[in-house]
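Quarterly update, task 2.4: fe (ii) ion-bound model.
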Amino acid sequence: MNFNTIYQYNFPTTIRFGAGASKELGDYLIKNNLLKPLIVTDNTVAQLDFFKEIIADLKMKNISAEVFNDIHRNPVKSDVYKGTDVYDAMHRDAIVGIGGGAALDVARSIVLRINHREDLFKYDDLIGGDVYVTNDVPHFITIPTTAGTGSEVGRSAVIADDETHQKKILFSPKLLAKIVFADPLLTMELPPFITAATGMDALTHNMEAYLAKMPHPLCEGIALEGISLISRSLEKAVNNPDLESRSNMLIASLMGAVAFQKGLGVVHSLAHPLSSLLDTHHGLANAVNIPYGMEFNILGFEHKFKRIARALDLNEETGEAVVQFLFDLNSKINIPHKLNAIGVKPEHIETLTDMAVADFAHPNNPKPVTGADFKQLYLKAL
Ligand SMILES: NC(=O)c1ccc[n+]([C@@H]2O[C@H](COP(=O)([O-])OP(=O)(O)OC[C@H]3O[C@@H](n4cnc5c(N)ncnc54)[C@H](O)[C@@H]3O)[C@@H](O)[C@H]2O)c1
Ligand SMILES: [Fe+2]
């Protein structure tokens, strides 16, 4: 692969991938006669040079870009309502999400809300709310600035209740971006901690998607290649980044999100409660839990772990070697091996266990996970 070339892929939507791809946004908007976009981002990204350059370029092309960046780090419903108010008040005609998973999830939820004005959580996928997503949605464009969630190619958004902090999932095929500009140059300055945490989220997506019980060879092939790319690139992207490692991480994170339409598993169910209860970054929560969750999954699935070990290019093609690889990788990218290092205390375990049991991810795990299993896994990781 030539890292200075922009490639086009059409699965699952049009993806313009390569160094400089984000510079195509202005011409794309003009070509589609979208001259009043709402740009949704977060407060940190809004201050970065590349973001200011994108906005300046749009202005130079006589595109009226209105920026909305008033969002929480784990986004809540009121963020979505505020962004919708700006869209209405400023008479916008499209939505461009630029940022990590948090900003892209808010952008996607505003896309939903524009023509669906019932309470946002009526559309919660977990209570079958996707059937109410029947109206048209505005033209939606995504530009990822982290390499982790892959939300840019997703059809769902994770939004929490302002009071209870319980996370809800908004889902509809209509929420898939019409086009993704995936530009590794935007991720060049990602701080090491965010690179590590988001990169481990991407690795977790690929591994859990590969193992998830639904048969889906298309996604499994993508997941194995995603695992391979990350194993070759994450340490370098964290400690000594270059265009190759950043490009590999960005495409692999996108692949993880494409693959996890197949489902996720026990690791995401261990991780979600940490974000709800302790505001832990989603990727960090996955990173600490993944060796334990994968160890739990080995028995009965040795044949699948053999394929994962091959994708990781390990000498020993066993599940145990995969688990050791995960601990070693965490060490190399400064992720702790234990939950107590990220603020989890023994008194949290009961609540975390109840929340993990109620989580939506583990029913797709290759084997069932009981409350007793979750408790044991948390205690082992503590
Ligand atoms: N929709 C989905 O399918 C899906 C899947 C998994 C997670 N999520 C959600 O995504 C969110 C996490 O997303 P994330 O891991 O991308 O983190 P994030 O969006 O919270 O970003 C992490 C931090 O990095 C900063 N940042 C982003 N881009 C940067 C850049 N280029 N340079 C410097 N700093 C930058 C952000 O401002 C933020 O402070 C959570 O809310 C989670 O629930 C969504
Ligand atoms: Fe995730």
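Highlight for this quarter: The CA atoms of residues 99 and 145 lie 5 Å apart.
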